[in-house]
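Cyclic dehypoxanthine futalosine synthase: structure tokens wanted.
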Amino acid sequence: MTANREIDDILQRAADGGRITPEEALLLYTEAPFHALGEAADTIRRRRYPDNIVTYLIDRNINYTNVCVTACKFCAFFRAPKHKDGWSHPMEEILRRCGEAIDLGATQVMLQGGHHPEYGVEYYESLFSGVKQAYPQLKIHSIGPSEILHMAKVDGVSIEEAILRIKAAGLDSIAGAGAEMLPQRPRKAIAPLKESGERWIEVMTIAHRNGLSSTATMMMGTGETHAERIEHIRMIRDCQDLAVANGYQDTAVEAALEVGGFRAFIPWTYQPENNHLKGRTQATTMEYLRFIAVSRLFFDNIAHLQASWLTTGKDVGQLALHLGVDDLGSIMLEENVISSAGARHRSNLHELIWMIRTADRIPAWRDTLYNHLAVHRTEADDPTDDRVVSHFSSIAMPGKKQLPLVDAK
Ligand code: SF4
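Answer:
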């Protein structure tokens, strides 16, 4: 109970599984006492996941190019076409990294890159089909609406044709990057050349309609208002309402797991190094944690909520497990985009499992669709591979020292 009857009623309704309005979400975000907010969000997690399991994933983010024509102000990863530090990896290098990832237990790869002026649908078809042919067991959870719009524009085809072709080539799931902030004012301020938020939603809707499910992300802390953060999740919830109402699930498995449309929501915090936007407006830890809880209360139609230990730090990631989060995301065998902008937090398989267990949750290794691959009920069930650790930028930048992903020792 809090001192405010209106807030109590909203928290209770949300905790009971009822829907809250964007205005109510904003009130909770700005006014609700922290502990009451967290308790209500965790009530939802416990009802959704009474087994008390919190999942993690082993995957690798592999970048095919850093060349990009979109020049987002917050991005420290891209280089303009013809820049001396621009690069593209050949297929053999991408496949080598996939093979290395599989050796370390990865079940998924996230192929990410810039909007290269010459990369149309055909490039992505050969990228996805090349990976699928070499490693059919790997799920390809990659790219976002921005890349789909870019490739469709390069080749002069419709969004739907681009989606159908890359799905047929092997794309299993859209990663939902490029959402950043969907409302127009903050989006224009940080990514003036990117598609509008409405267009991002439109591409996701077409993908969901064609049986390609996704996750949804949000980058907070670039100067947006509290109300704009809530508007971002309002746009995603409305899009998911369409997916649920129309049964846009690809398979019986997806329908059973409630993972058609958006399977998960993943907010993370802006990193201010090496870009044109720089610092000063980053989200605080409390803003992030409060938003995590509000997201769990607001998204009555999205199954999973993921904490971002990469950008917020491992302590904050672990705290988020008490605010409605049921997934700690990936160990990230390789990550070069967010780490280029300053994210320094690294982890390893043992530590990720320890973070979940010491939060009084049961750790489980999952796949892309959140099927449990192994449940570590006791330490005797824990994996023993010491090689499964996070690696950042140094290994992906040609011209810099190349560190081997797997330690030779
Ligand atoms: S965020 Fe993506 S689209 Fe924007 S500049 Fe970076 S690589 Fe390009």
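The chain has a mean pLDDT of 90. The pocket of iron/sulfur cluster is lined by residues 68, 70-72, 75, 77-78, 114-115, 146 (CB under 6 Å).

Cheers.
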